[in-house]
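Shipment paperwork, digital attachment
Item: protein structure file
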Amino acid sequence: MSFSDKEIADIRADTPACAAQIHFNNAGAALMPNPVFDGMQTHLELERDYGGYAAESLAAEKISGFYPALAKLLNAKPSEIAFAANHTRAWEMGFRAMDWREGDRLLIHDSTYTSNYLAFLHLVKTRGIVLDRIPSIESGVIDLERVAPLITNRTKAIALTHMPTFDGSIQPAAALGKIANDHNLLYIVDACQSVGQAEIDVQAIGCDLLAGTGRKWLRGPRGTGFLYVRQSALEKLSPPLIDNISAAQTTDTEFEWADGAKRFETYERHVAGQIGLSEAAKYAIDLGLPRIEDRVQSLAKSLRETLTDLPVSVLDKGEALSGIVTFRSERKSAKDIIDALWEKRIAVSYISPHQVTERPDAVRASIHYYNTQDEIDKFCNELAQIIR
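Attachment content:
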């Protein structure tokens, strides 16, 4: 099941940027492999040489290949996949498609991504919805036993961030999905940090909508995202935006939505990016998501264990942990650590403090399958010198 040394060497050779840095910022934006870059470059050359419309026609097969590729990645139907400009737009197109009315209630958790939470607050102010917070167990993961008692006859949906951006916890998406389905609630999942580093099966999760991005663990381009919409949920949803690809005018006063998830798309899009995201999905599928997940979690575990020998506090809690490793030091600020690491061409990222949840700022090191144990050792050696 694990990758051989030769496979990792080939993957790193397929990722030229590996030679120039230790890239532990995959939760921000992962390094792009050659097939993704080549697919995009080929299409951009077509746009340069023939113009956008002709290029689109010439690349029709590659463009349409995005839908079965993402469907295979998520265990969905191609008709249930929509391309989006980014994760946030995909998420909001799904979330705002629900028929929110004053007094409707939404179940959320403190692990919610900030942009998603801002969308919640916007509907609190504009539609009068009510947010109900699901409590956590000690590790910060959702307390599943306390979900059902929060559900009322005005509860419309549950929203979950599967793998939070600010620590390595993994939320129990499938178990929460069962509760949502048992109570006939719409269930929307933010998989921005999980698609590409773990095997994601929308059937097992039981979600009605799931949103993700291209630039992170899938190793695709920026400016790309996707939305999964379960076919059976469509009748409960009305997309908040409309154009001539998401719908068709039928009379002077009527229109019909496009079939399936394409009603959540817009006509104008980053076509080269869509091709690149398709190539990224195929690349991950060919490598095998179970193998990717196993290697990511193994490397992240090794990093956490090595960090315990240094004067830092590892902040990740729980039995199931992702490739995101967060820590802080009392000797040096998180921002100073990040700047000093980048001087050594080691890329990590900054987690801002959160006043509401009293979460401190931290350094975030996010490990992907193309990283190595040697890189972890070098990272920790450099970190030890920085905070000595």
